[in-house]
Structures are given as C-alpha cells and as structure tokens.
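Handout, page 2. Input:
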Amino acid sequence: MKVTGVETIAIRNIEPYRGGPYWLFVQLKTDEGITGLGERPTGHALNLNPQISMIEDLCDQFVIGKSPFQIERIWQTAYASRHDGRHPGLYMTPALSAIEMALWDIVGKATNQPIYNLLGGRVHDQLRAYAYMPTEGIWEDPEKAGEIAIKLVEEGNTACKLDPFTPFFPHPRDFSLKTIRHVARIFKAIRAAVGDELEVGIGTHGQFSTAVAIRVAKELEQFSPFWFEEPVPPENIDEMARVAAHTSIPIASGERLVTKFEFADLLKKQAAQIIQLDVGQCGGILESKKIAGMAESYYAMIAPHMYCGPVAAAAAVQLDTCSPNFLIQEYNGDSLHSEIFKEPIRFENGFITPPTGPGLGIELDEAVVKKHLA
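Output:
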C-alpha cells in the first residue's frame, strides 16, 4: 500500500468557536482506496493558507509514495530533514502531527483495529473528562461559582477547570493581594457548595511571575486544587520547577511543548506532575505515546490538552485509552463536534467512551462537512 495524495479540508466553526474559528482536516489517500483522517489544530488563526502549504509540502516531500505503515520512518525523516536535525518548533510540528494521525487512521483501517489496540490495547473502558466552569458573573459575585459547581455535579461531572485570573496577556505579570484573595473567595464558594464532589483545576496561561505564582499557590492550597496549570510561562522550565518546589498543588503543563525532548526536560527538572500534552501539536499519536511512557517512569500522569476540532480530539481519545497513566481528558466539544461525525464521540455524565471502530473510530458526515466548508 502507498500514499497517493493529500487533501486539506477547512471547516468554519460555529460559535462559541470551541477549538478555534476554523478547523483544518487532512485526508491522505492510498492506492488501495483507504483514506486516513488527521487534523492540524489552528488555534485562533484566521488565515489557514500558510498551514495548508506546510502540510502539502511535507506530504509531497516525505509522505506521498511511501507506505503508511512506515510511520516512524516518515516522522523521523520529516522532523530532521527540514532543520538539519534541530528542533522544528510549534509551527511545523502540528502539521507533522496531522499527517501522522492520518497515517495511523489508515493503518487502523487496513488492520481493522482501533489505534489503541496497535499501541498496547485498551487499558481504560471509560475516560474521565473535565468541564470548564463558566466565569460570567462569578468575579462580581463569587457565590455564583458555587451555584455553577452544583450544576456541574448534577450533570455528572467530577472535575472542572476555572480560569479566574485576567487578563491572560501579556505575561508574566503581577497580581495584587486583593485580587488573589478575591479568587480565594471564589474557590471557597465552590467548596462550600459541593464539598469534595468536584475537583477544580486552576487554569492559567503562564500569566504569573515566579514570585506571584508562589504567592497564589500558597493562598489557594487550602482548597486542594486539582492542579495549578502553567503558573509561569513554559519557556523557562527551571522557574516552573521553582514554583513546583514551593507548593503542594500539582503543577500541570505541556500544551505548548512539542516532542519528547521538551517533555524530557520538564519531567527531569520536576517542573510538572500532570502532563498536558497535545496530540495535535506535540508530534502526533506515537510521539504522544512516547511522552506518556516517559511520564509514567516519573509517576506523572497525563491530562491531554484539547483545544481543537473533533479529529484531533478523537486522536487524544485513542492515546488515553491505551495509556496506564491517563488521569483525565480535557473536553471542549460542542454541537458541531458531534454533528460532523456519522457516529460522534460518546461523552456522557463526565466520561468519554472510547470508540471500537478501526483507526480513529470516526467517519465524517459529508453533508455536514459541505455545509461548513470555509
């Protein structure tokens, strides 16, 4: 079997634009009629042409004419050739991730197996997922956070994430004691409302200086947060490790890191205990499996990042299902995430059920795709 062509599909998302205003899917075609599906997460990009060009160029040079079973060889050649074996960065790696996903989808379909069966088999029958806590109104009235927490628990959720500090950018920045203690009142209202029934992660975007991050952690430790996400910008792992050494709250990081090499540094320096790798950005499914294995050796857990469209989300589900150190999955799906597949990913009562179909276990609904083409 050989890969014979590549096609990109740009989807215009619907409000509230979960996963970005546009999704970019990749289809690899083979000479045996099997098509593989992947996705390059686009974030908030409004012009997809540079990303499309990168995908097409990589496929022309490294993928077309090759066996889709040679995933490792294709990945290593593409990764090293463009930059003389040096780090390709967060621009190229997501394109390579999308291609790699599509190759795995082909291999799964050719062998009639879900990808997780080709990477060790199912470890988890259900995948715990976490929701976002809406922040509208809770800054003005912290008691509203308790009301929202009750609703989340009633819906079956056991965990959520809250982004209480704004603005997100620029960073790092200072936050006053008054602001920090106001956030503490929000967490106090949540605990008063639902007790220990709901884990609550502190969501941040690398907003703090090291000193302020330590101060925030000390104030919020009393509420036993699920994690403290990217307390400082992820570029300086030593400073994140300094924060980790000063708090009992587990540090979570990884959504902006790529390849096993950056994650090795994060783990070695004990900067994070919860690894938020992004399957669509860090290098793909196999690279994510390697990162998860490295994390396992440090007794660290994975909680994959999922600000993306539904195909990259399906790839994360495949990784989660076969990873013994899976903790929880971010899930930001909306109606279009479900409608675009003939059989959507099953998310009920705070848990995702892994699909049993071959490859990624998904199939696009062409009528819905056509309706939302960008």
